[in-house]
Amino acid sequence: MKRIIFLFALSLFPGHSFSQPTAGWLRSNTPNQKHFEIRVKPFVDLYFFVYKISSGSATSPAIEGLDQAVAAARQVPIFLPLINKLALFGCDNAADAERAFGQFPENFKTRTGGMIPLRERAVHLARALSFIEPAFLQKVWPQHKAAIQQANLRIARDMEPREQELFAYFTGHLGFENADYVVPIYLVAEGPWPAALTANSDERKHGACLVNVGDSQGAHLFDAILHESIHALNLETEGNGNVLADLRRRLLEAGFDKNDLVVREGPHMLVFIQSVETVRRFCPNPSGERYEEVRDGTKRLSYFEGLPTVASIGDLEVFSVLRRLARAAATLHA
Ligand SMILES: [Zn+2]
Question: Which candidate among 43, 81, 167, 328 keeps its CA 20 to 30 Å from the CA of 109?
C-alpha cells in the first residue's frame, strides 16, 4: 500500500467555477502552464464522507440508506477504488461508479493473504451510494460545497499567483525539473485520516491527489497541496536525478536495511521539509501562525526545527541530517 498510496497528499479558480475536466493527463512543461489543477466532484466528496462516517469520526446525518452505505463501505478498503485505474476520480456520480467498479478484478488478495470478492462488494457499495446520492446532494453537499469554495478562494489568492515560483523552487531542489505533468488535486470537505493522499494506479505512473479541506486548516492547506504534488511528481520522475530516490540509495549504500525506519521514512521526511519550506518561503500566512504549529496538533513538524532545506543537503552534510531524521522518525513512530 505504501507503494501506491502516499499519505499526506480541476478547475475551481475564480472564473472556472465548478468545472469538471474529463480524464486525461495534461502537460505542464510549457511556459506559464499550470502545475496543479483543482478538481471538485460531489460524488468523490460523498465517497470520502461515507468513509469518514465508517471510520467512526463523524456523526451521521438523517439520510435513509446511509447506514447501509456505511456498512457497504466497511467491506471495501477505501484505497481500492482509488488505485484500480484511479476509477473513483473518473466518476461523476454513483451510476458512473457502478459501471466503473463493475470492471474491477473479481477478487483482491489482501496483504494478510485473505481474499476479498472485490467486484461484487464494490458494485454493492456503488449501488448503496446511488441510493443516498440525491439526499446527500440536497442535505449535505451545499455545506460541503461552501467549505470547498472557501478553501479554493484561499488557494486562488495565496497560491495561484505564485504557482510558477512554488513549483520551480521545490522541483529544482528535488531534482524534478523534468516533471511534465499537471497534478490533479481533488478537494473534499471531509474524510477519514489522512487529511490528504496521493493515489497511483498500477497501470499509470501519474498520480491523483486528494485533500480534505476540513482537516487542512490555515497554511496546512497549501502544505498539503505541495506535499501531495511532490508525491505525484515523484512517481513521474523516479530514478532520474530524483533527490528522494538518491537519498534512499545512499542510505542503503551506507548499510541501512530497506526495512529500517530511516530508509522507509527518511525520504518522506524530506517531502515534509520541502513542502513546508516552500510554503513558508512563498505563501503569506495571514493568521500569523508559525507553520510548524499549523499542522493539526500532531507536532510532527516541530521535529524539523533547524533542519536544513533539501537544497542545502550536500554530500558532507547528508549523514548528520539523516541521524536527526532517524531520531525524529523514531520519535514519531514510538
Ligand atoms: Zn507524504
Answer: 43
Alpha-helical (H) ranges within the chain are: 42-54, 66-73, 80-83, 94-101, 118-139, 141-158, 163-174, 220-237, 243-253, 261-282, 291-294, 318-332
Closest CA to 48 of 199, 222, 176, 237: 199
Provide the pLDDT confidence category of residue 270 given band limits of 50, 70 and 90.
confident
Cell of 229: 504534488
Distance 20 CA to ligand 1 centre (A): 26
**Interatomic CA distance for residues 5 and 123, integer angstroms:** 22
Which residues, including other chains, have CB under 8 Å from residue 229's CB and lie 6 or more apart? 9, 35, 36, 167, 183, 185, 209
What are 74-91's pLDDT values in tens digits?
999 999 998 888 899 999
- CA dist., res. 34 & res. 26, Å (int): 9
Grid coordinates belonging to 50: 461515507
Question: What would the grid cell of residue 308 be?
Answer: 536544513
- Tell me, in angstroms, the distance from the centre of ligand 1 to residue 191's CA: 17
Cα 124 to averaged position of ligand 1 atoms, centre (Å): 31
Quick one: residue 247, left, alpha or beta (phi over 0 = left, psi -120 to 50 = alpha)? Answer: alpha
Distance 271 CA to ligand 1 centre (A): 6
- Of 124, 157, 174, the closest CA to residue 277 belongs to 174
**pTM summary value:** 0.80
- Dist. CA 61–CA 77, nearest whole Å: 23
CA of 113 to the centre of ligand 1 (A): 26
